[in-house]
Each structure stands twice: as structure tokens, then as C-alpha cells.
């Protein structure tokens, strides 16, 4: 039997994954799920809510906070702990979904973007850079603990943003087996299927590129390419399938019309930067919106009368996270073999990228791990900016791992959304200053 652990389980997303497991049959193959967080209040709320989900699900799942229950009667136990080492002890798979500094740090990142007249978004802009610096030292601790205390040959399935940079740091500098997950590919897959009036089982997309800068290179319905038809429909309906947690600025249809490939909603930050910055000045920060959404979510989680996922969860922006996470976990445990889009090292799959560059790509996953599936190569247009973004991400990962100011400055200069060199230097110093409580000392800082 297998143990799973969720680190950062005080996240509002955790019950979505637990609910999916409860209703999937995976609970019959796993002996224990351990929920770990450093915030005792959030952990208690999530743990109590998952207890009620389990009781309602008719699952054979037992939920407990200690090891005192009779496991001879209960098939699967969910534990809650504040100890990282206890959480990962004996675990085969660990899912980190941490937010260092909580929503207050995200809000400061977004405000810093506004101060400099740039995008502060938490994955693409200066917010993503700041979050990577805060996050990677903690992800390193999780990976260290998993290798030391976990089961033999464990997997780290990363859902911590910025997912591309965090997973790249692990790939480049750690021995842990790691794979990154994101709900973006499934959001696009569902949107494309709905557009075609088709079931998701009958459609397939080739979703390739850096996390939050991937492209749909082809759409197939029953094995036949319908990319042109999908692009035509998207242009006619003036819209892309887009997550709720990003800008509402519209993406020009000319990119699809002229390039013949499909961007995602995140491309708006790069191709309509001025419009996004202008929108940002006149709307509440995403951090403020999420804080209000989470207030309502956790009110439900804490209520003894609530035993169903609250509607407010849909506003959080992580649709399909639970499906992707479940699929990857089930595959790695040998319960299924499936095509899933994940963030993994390039290893020569796509031209123009380093071996260690982590890209989202379709893979066949089973108990042996993942195997990239052959798709078309990224065309020059898509590859060009993707190469710059990957260079930025690789340098950011290295800077955060080594706590190196000079590498951090070079990385930030490479980000297409940052200002000129002198302003970027001041921006970096301010990023380090406002995150001092979460960062080791950076060598070369002056």
C-alpha cells in the first residue's frame, strides 16, 4: 500500500483533490494521505472539511488527526500534521502546493508591479520572479526531506507556482524525481472540446511550451486534425478558453489567424502588455480578490453543516487541478497509463531548448514514469520568445538556488515584462528588501 502527502495542504485547493480521490477508487489503493501545513488554523479547517467529504462519499476512507484509530477496520487514513518530516515519512508521492508569505506577499508583489508600471502577476511578471525566490528554498527543503524520509524512489508532483521555474530548479539542482503539473492544458482542452460540441474523450490537443506560455500546436477530433476549424471558431467568437484568475484583456485574433497556432490567455501579458498594465491600475489586485474568495471558502470549510465543495471554490481559478493531479498520481502508482500534459525536462524533445529546460508537453505516464510523445516542433515565431522565457526561468531557478544577486539581475533583465537595465537593478533590490523575511542572504547584493 502507498502513502501520499500534500504539503501546503492548508490551500483552498486541497479538498478538490481529496474529493476526486474519494470518488475515483484511488482510496482503495492508497493506505494513507498526510496533509501538512505550517498554518494550524487552515490545516484544521481543511482536515475537518475533508472528514465530512469522506463521511458523505461512502468511501472506505478513515480521516484522523493521529494514529489512534483502528486501522484494521479502516482501509485508508488521512492524517494532519505540522511536521514536514512526519508528512513525507514513507511517502511515495508528495504534492507541494505552498505559498510562501501567503496572500500578503502576493499583494506586495502586485503593488510593486504597479509602482514600476509593469506587470506584477504571480507567474509571468515580477510577481512570478519574487515568488520563485521565496519558494525555491522551501521546495528544496521538501525535496531533501522526501529523499531522506520518503519511500524508495519517490516522486514529487509539483503544483507550486511559478510551476515552470520551481520544477526547473528541482530538475537542474536536485536528485528528486519531479514532474510539474498545471491546470492550463485541461482548461484549454475542455474549452476546445466545448467549442467543437465534442466530448473530451474524442478530442486531443498538443499543448507545448513554457508553463503559462505554451501553445496549442494541433487539435484532433477522433484522430483527425481540426486545428483550422477551431481557430476559425475562436476568431468568430472572439475568445479563448481562459482561467478566471488572469486578465480580462482580449487577445488579438490576428495571432491565430496569421500563425496558425493557438495561444493561451497568459499570452495577453506579453502581447498586450500596455493594455494589461492599464487595466491593472483601475481594478482591485488579484490578491485582494483571492483573499475575499478564500474568506468565503474557509467559512464553508469551518462550518460543521457544510459537506459539499462550496461554489466559491470555482472562483479561485484552479479548475481541473484535481483532475490533472489525480491522473498523474494514478499513473505513477501504476493504476492507469494515460496521455497527460505535464512539465518535464526537454531532453532533446523540442529543438532550440536545453536538455534541462522544463517545458509543458504531452507525455505517456505509467508506473515507470513519463515518456514525451511526438508532436510538431514549435514554429520559429513561438519558439523565439519561448527560448527567452526559458533562459529567464533557468537563470531565476539558479539564482534562487544559489542565492546569487548577479544571476538574479541577469534573470530579471531577460524577462520580457521588466523595464530597462537601471530600473531593473533598483527593482531587484526592492524585491530582495521586501522579501527579506523569506530569503537567505544573497551573495553579491550591494
Task: Write up this protein.
The protein is α/β, with parallel strands linked by helices. It has a domain at 2-100 and 119-181: NAD(P)-binding Rossmann-like Domain (Rossmann fold), CATH 3.40.50. It contains 16 helices and 13 strands. It has helices at residues 14-22, 40-57, 84-88, 102-116, 126-149, 163-173, 184-196, 227-237, 254-259, 268-271, 273-282, 286-302, 321-332, 380-402, 405-414, 421-434, and strands at 2-7, 30-36, 61-63, 76-81, 93-96, 155-158, 177-180, 203-208, 215-221, 224-225, 338-345, 358-366, 369-372. The strands form 3 sheets. Strands 3-4-2-1-5-6-7 form a 7-stranded parallel beta sheet, with helices on both faces.
Overall 3D form: globular
**SSE order:** EHEHEEHEHHEHEHEEEHHHHHHEEEHHH
- Number of helical elements: 16
Text of the CATH class of the domain at 2-100 and 119-181: Alpha Beta
- The mean pLDDT is 92
Strand content: 15-25%
Number of strands: 13
User: In CATH terms, what is the architecture of the domain at 2-100 and 119-181?
Assistant: 3-Layer(aba) Sandwich
* Rg, Å, rounded: 21 Å
Outline the secondary-structure elements:
Layout: E1 2-7, H1 14-22, E2 30-36, H2 40-57, E3 61-63, E4 76-81, H3 84-88, E5 93-96, H4 102-116, H5 126-149, E6 155-158, H6 163-173, E7 177-180, H7 184-196, E8 203-208, E9 215-221, E10 224-225, H8 227-237, H9 254-259, H10 268-271, H11 273-282, H12 286-302, H13 321-332, E11 338-345, E12 358-366, E13 369-372, H14 380-402, H15 405-414, H16 421-434
Parallel strand pairs: 1-2, 1-5, 2-4, 3-4, 5-6, 6-7
Antiparallel strand pairs: 8-9, 9-10, 11-12, 12-13
Helix pairs in contact: 1-2, 1-13, 2-12, 4-5, 4-12, 4-16, 5-6, 5-14, 6-14, 14-15, 15-16
